[in-house]
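explain this:

___
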Amino acid sequence: MYSVIIRDHMMIAHSFDSEAFGPAQNLHGATYVVDAEFKAEQLDENSIVIDIDIATKELQKALAPLKYQNLDELEQFKGKLTTTEFLAKHVHDTISQAVHDRFSGSLKVTLGESHVAWATYEAPVA
């Protein structure tokens, strides 16, 4: 298995409307390190997994609407618990939609919210 990993980051604010989150129910900020790992069984005709420039730009585009935003105020997230896991899937789905015609394999998106906690979502790019 081959892979290419691209990294970026984003700063967001959000709250959680559930008692399961204790003090995180209140509005708080988070700074995520975001890794997008593109995986393929075979290299393409150019002997690459994916063009690194394309991967970088698509990760940047996926994060741009979220950076420096209060996610509670974004229409697409109304009524959603924007957990780290939820955001990993959101970023995955956004990138997958953008690269499905230029990449064949799976995509693993990891959001690191601290040096001791992170969440990942991985699935084939469809």
User: Anything to note?
Assistant: The chain is about 20% helix and 35% strand.
